[in-house]
Amino acid sequence: MGLCFDLTDEQEAIRQTCGEFADQVVAPRAAEFDRNQEFPYSVVAQMGELGLFGLPYPTAVGGAGADFVSYLLALEEISRADAALGITLEAGVSLGIAPIFHFGSEQQRERYLPELCSGRGLWAFGLTEPEAGSDAAGTATKAVREGGEYVIDGTKSFITNAGTEISRGVTITAVTGNSGGRPQISAIMVEKGTPGYRQAPPYRKLGWHASDTRELSFDSCRVPIANLVGREGGGFGQFLKVLEGGRIAIAALSVGVAQACLDASLGYSQRRRQFGRTLSRFQATQMKLADMATQIELSRLMVWRAGLLVDQGQPAGRFAAMAKLQASETATWCANQAVQIHGGAGFMEDLPVARYYRDVKINEIGEGTSEIQRLVIASHLLGFKGSVSSLLEGPGTA
Amino acid sequence: MRIAVFVKQVPDPSGAGRLDPATNLLVREGVEVVLDPGDAYGIEAALQLAEASQGEVVVISMGGERALEVVRKAMAMGAGSGLHVFDQRLGGSDALATARVLAAAVSRVAPDLVVAGTESTDGYTGTVPAAVAELLGWPSLTFAKHLELSGGTVRVQRQTPAGHDLVEADLPAVVTVTGGINEPRYPTLKGIMGAKSRPLEQLSIEDLGLDAAGLSPQQRVVAVAPAPQRQAGRVVEDDGSAARLIADYLAELKVI
Ligand SMILES: Cc1cc2nc3c(=O)[nH]c(=O)nc-3n(C[C@H](O)[C@H](O)[C@H](O)COP(=O)(O)OP(=O)(O)OC[C@H]3O[C@@H](n4cnc5c(N)ncnc54)[C@H](O)[C@@H]3O)c2cc1C
Ligand SMILES: Cc1cc2nc3c(=O)[nH]c(=O)nc-3n(C[C@H](O)[C@H](O)[C@H](O)COP(=O)(O)OP(=O)(O)OC[C@H]3O[C@@H](n4cnc5c(N)ncnc54)[C@H](O)[C@@H]3O)c2cc1C
Q1: CB atoms B186 and A20 under 8 Å
Q2: How many angstroms separate the alpha carbon of residue B95 from the centre of ligand 2?
Q3: What is the DSSP string of B200-222?
Q4: Where are the domains of chain A?
Q5: Which helix (H) or strand (E) is A359 found in, with range?
Q6: Which CATH architecture has domain A124-233?
Q7: Alpha carbon of B157 to ligand 2 centroid (Å)
Q8: Fewer CB atoms inside 10 Å of the end CB: C or N, chain B?
Q9: What's the alpha-carbon Rg for chain B, to the nearest Å?
Q10: What is the ipTM of this complex?
Q11: Which tens digit of pLDDT belongs to each residue from B170-219?
């Protein structure tokens, strides 16, 4: 079939159900969770019962059996009500479950996926380090083989979902050796409670207050060799694949926040009166609303386009980077316009737009900054197939 | 235990309803339609009873092509199968015709119990479930705010202005539930994905063994008038007798 923007019956029903859940269950409590910097266990449990955490995974592993586009629709709806819950879901599904589902052994999948897909447990993904952020391949964490175990030493920064009461563990990247002078990076699972694995107290953040973010440290932390995900040295390729889906998901999250900004602005501009008329009667406001709506529509189409490629099993790297770049910058811009339209009231925590403004900036940073997305896109354009390190260092004409 | 639940698709109550000036009936085409919120309580009640008795729930709806969506929604919430009566000739049906069709559908499903809403959000006659019971010769229990089954009987707490009556009847029976009876669940996302693989029948008038001639509407909406503007209230200056006046007024309205 050619180009078609219609959702399937199931996609439409999932979008509607998640939209109702977001409006009725999430939105009324989002401000409270944000203010108290509180991880919303009860709502996360309800999201689990709804089937959100296993949404794009097959029923055989405990998932709902939906496609990736359905998951993106759900993520937009939840994030429209609360971006912090959006990231809890995104990190759980795209960073926690995805590596185990795509690269885990049969035993690993059987041991972890049913609980994680049910939302009763969360798994984290630890890539970023104090000295390895955008340059994620610069990881300094080491995993040395000793007998039947890896001994892990190192630190991971800004990790989502690792320190809640329902967190079960983390998949980390670590150097397990050298091949041809280059460090060999592998992915290894570490269960919470393993001696030597510690989660620091939560960071104090600008936004996403209801989401759990911590520094993790590994001090002679021993795990069985069987905790290796995929093959030794496969870690780098795995996380590129994981981030491909993750970036589209962050783009969907961004569209949700941008939509919330537009919805709030539409409402407020038709209520608030100055100079004897509502703000919506000023052309300056109308231009803002029209530009917001147009950029949101564009972003959503890019999210759907990239998501469709994933469902078709085609490489989506370039489109994932483009969608994330477009949607995250749109969301920040929309939040800025939304506060402006609200005037002083927009700066007050009584209305949700102040929260949107604080929550939105991170979308341009997490899972690859806007600069890194541009490098990824450029590397595709210039023939480096999405590899930023080749673009920056490798031989070639760039 | 087999429980049938009636669900109706209605124009979104949060939207502004529009009447067709030619027929004085609600416009159903080209508007947002949803599962009647009142029927969500019926679905939840049926699912809870079925879960407690290892029974099954069969959804029944009569409506246009899109009514299939509400049947699927009920199936995504947990109902095992569905029956959608869809026949162009049923457009414009009145409550009696609707009840005849639904009674025939119930006979086909042969449930132990039928659960329905108290009244629909659009038509609002509140007569269909009782009419179905009458046509089937089954007991009709209305306004249930609590519902339980034991052995071959159904027992409900029937909401009254003063409290509730405890009413019991032998199965099979028809029960209508009120909004307070439970907290309807969301469809699960897995349920949404699985709904299409469960049995769903779409039947015409003849499939139900009915004769279209006997189903033409017996009533017509002759005129529609807007609700009267609210009158300005009566102001009572308190010269010491206000309490008396207000009490008399409330008594006159039978409020006290
Ligand atoms: C709330 C939160 C949650 C997070 N959750 C997780 C998680 O669950 N798991 C995880 O692994 N990580 C997580 N992260 C980390 C996140 O992915 C990194 O912060 C991000 O990749 C950027 O790395 P950095 O912070 O080290 O910035 P740096 O890499 O130090 O970048 C600083 C600036 O330099 C720019 N820059 C860097 N290199 C280049 C270049 N080559 N060309 C041009 N500009 C460049 C960047 O774009 C940026 O503007 C999280 C971060 C936050 C804030
Ligand atoms: C022009 C026209 C078009 C119509 N098109 C439709 C249509 O597209 N879809 C449609 O559903 N009806 C349609 N009808 C039928 C009609 O609107 C009502 O279904 C019928 O009159 C029932 O009356 P009520 O809504 O007052 O039901 P009430 O007695 O107030 O309803 C009480 C309960 O009975 C059950 N119930 C009622 N009606 C149905 C039903 N149709 N299917 C399943 N359960 C039901 C529900 O549980 C409901 O909560 C149409 C009628 C007209 C006149």
Answers
A1: yes
A2: 7
A3: EEEE-TGGGT--GGGGS-S----
A4: 9-122, 124-233, 237-391
A5: helix A352-360
A6: Beta Barrel (2.40)
A7: 25
A8: C
A9: 21
A10: 0.90
A11: 999 999 999 989 999 999 999 999 998 999 999 999 999 999 988 888 88
